[in-house]
Amino acid sequence: MAKRTPAGTPTDVTQGSRTKGGIGESTLRPDGTLKVTGEFAYSSDMWHEDMLWGHTLRSTVAHAEIRSIDTAEALATPGVHAILTYDDLPTEVKRYGLEFQDTPVLAHGKVRHHGEPVAIVAADHPETARRAAAKIRVDYADLPVVTDEASATAEGAPLVHENRDDHHAGHVPHPNIVHRQPIVRGVAAEAAKRADVIVSGEYVFGMQDQAFLGPESGLAVPGEDGGVDLYVATQWLHSDLRQIAPVLGLPEDKVRMTLSGVGGAFGGREDLSMQIHACLLALRTGKPVKIVYNRFESFFGHVHRHPAKLWYEHGATKDGKLTHLKCRIVLDGGAYASASPAVVGNASSLSVGPYVVEDVDIEALALYTNNPPCGAMRGFGAVQACFAYEAQMDKLAAKLGLDPVEFRRLNAMEQGTLLPTGQRVDSPAPVAELLRRVKARPLPPEQQWLTAGEAADVRALPGGLSNTTHGEGVVRGVGYAVGIKNVGFSEGFDDYSTARVRMEVVGGEPVATVHTAMAEVGQGGVTVHAQIARTELGVAQVTIQPADTRVGSAGSTSASRQTYVTGGAVKNTCEHVRERVLEIGRAKFGTYHPAWATAELLLESGKVVTDGGEVLADLADVLEGESVDLELEWRHRPTQAFDLRTGQGNGHVQYSFAAHRAVVEVDTELGLVKVIELAVAQDVGKALNPLSVLGQIQGGTTQGLGVAVMEEIIVDPKTAKVRNPSFTDYLIPTILDTPTIPVDVLELADENAPYGLRGIGEAPTLSSTPAVLAAIRNATGLELNRTPVRPEHLTGT
């Protein structure tokens, strides 16, 4: 044990004695080594003695009446313990949902999309459960499918949901519109008359999957008290709890939830998947039940990014100033609402981009269709808008004969800018500087294979290891883009988090224990929480307890909010714990030194010190025989709902910005694209863990690259059935597809945020996609108004 200063004896703090592992350092992730060595326990690895396996029977059609369900043959299968359909649900609560409850636990009367759950099976082996499910006979009568805006809003169109009673139903122009949000400021039609140049375009954004590698999975264990313990990979434990308990007919304190290892999320785990099904089967059989989706089922088991059609018109004066914006954004929400209303709010309020435009006429809406349900995904409505408005910026710059970066900088917002919603940007908005930095970065060498000789690496060519290109017809292109993303939940949502912190002496050393319900989905929150506790409490040893519902809600791990909100909660609780510790110290040792009463006191390196560096006591002595244990909630500044007619309101708490420069080489004969470099500049406010910041920025950039050139769920427009539910046919970037991603980090503090930080996880996903598209346009001269770009779009075949 380290030598301690005798209690109450003042000494000087030696240089560099600040507690190590605090904020601003790249401390190692506690789960990092386990993950890269394959030893980390994910939810799909859980096991319980005598457990059963669950399986879900899903609809094979997208829209049909259910005439009958026959489970007799399946129930007779040896090893089957239970089969449940809608009629077997235990309570009158048979639906759930994030914002309003429109999603049936199991289909009743009809199915509304391909892959909808119809029945669930519990058996003693996963293959037995799968085979039994295949024996269930469902008699379907096909109904007409609604697949786009025309079929959804046509006269006499089939209603995806009859008799809507949700809080959006009264203000939408058609029952097949989930939510509509206009934003009107100034008079766009009049402002258009001042424009010397007007450009317009129609853009199509494909349906992207979150493509997390860890499939949906969990384990439900029935309790002796009639309750259930659920171990699950999710993004928001308390939201799950709020939806699960009523369906089971249990009070929330009898549904005990614990986060298990999460293999990625990106928004796809905000909605329920197997949670209710596993609990129902466990309570029915009296045995633990484990459910693990395979990859095929995972494509149907979670929501996706909204595909979108976007129409934009911009005007500008001959000297390059934007005059107005008119735009219409139509998002396909699929069969159930999920997070569509909030995605609409984001798409509309961020549709202008990080630019100053005083006169706007904006409309965004989400449809109910029979396509797969869509909801939260990294970027949340801002991604689709960024793709369109950045294409427009390039069109305007070209028509005006201006450099595309300088044109953007000329119109860039800054701190103090009034947004189209009437909200003023009250923290740094270094849009022009981010663009300057990515443009100033040296370009990578062109066509490197030409000078490499025999050492030339085929992987550097378009087509890569397929060995289809040998340099003929390869053209370089460079493109730029910048985006704006909100941070945290918006539009008046009560966005808060809870943290419990305990401080005590263990083994002669002061130890802090932090307990939150934050879902660690790979973002590194558990690392940052420990760093915050070390910084605020001056202890080296910090224990992070597993996330569960024994502590208050931490909100969702989404919207780039967890470091801001749950980090803020940990910081706030630690500050209160620190004050209690100092009160104990004053009571014990206050007579030893007047500084206990007069100086500003800090906790550093396991000691109580003055702001001048004088040590007053060891924390181990202060806390001997004592402990401090507090659980507190923390909220960011309140936001407001957008006006339903004008879209005015202070809807967002914070904004984040990132800019990209993409360098591509394109084989124009074969339509193959190689992204050589994706340079990024992003303002992060304060990098609490610089290495984790780089990981988030590079990861978000790669996800944006995927939707630019390869990722899209293909839905048959006639049947609304998914054509490619596998990683064989749904392609995501691998390490061979991922270019060099140099990152330039700015740290311009937001004085309203804990430590001045800014949420960072989503902003790089916005601008990487349009930057890649801009580079391909630059190389080919083609307009390219949809994502992803495929070879046939480049060759015209």
TrEMBL record:
Name used for this protein in its record: Molybdopterin-dependent oxidoreductase
Domain Aldehyde oxidase/xanthine dehydrogenase a/b hammerhead positions: 37-144
Pfam families (alphabetical): Ald_Xan_dh_C, MoCoBD_1, MoCoBD_2
Region spans: Disordered: 1-30
Position of the signal peptide: none
InterPro entries according to UniProt: Ald_Oxase/Xan_DH_a/b, Ald_Oxase/Xan_DH_a/b_sf, Ald_Oxase/xanthine_DH-like, AldOxase/xan_DH_MoCoBD1, AldOxase/xan_DH_MoCoBD2, AldOxase/xan_DH_Mopterin-bd_sf
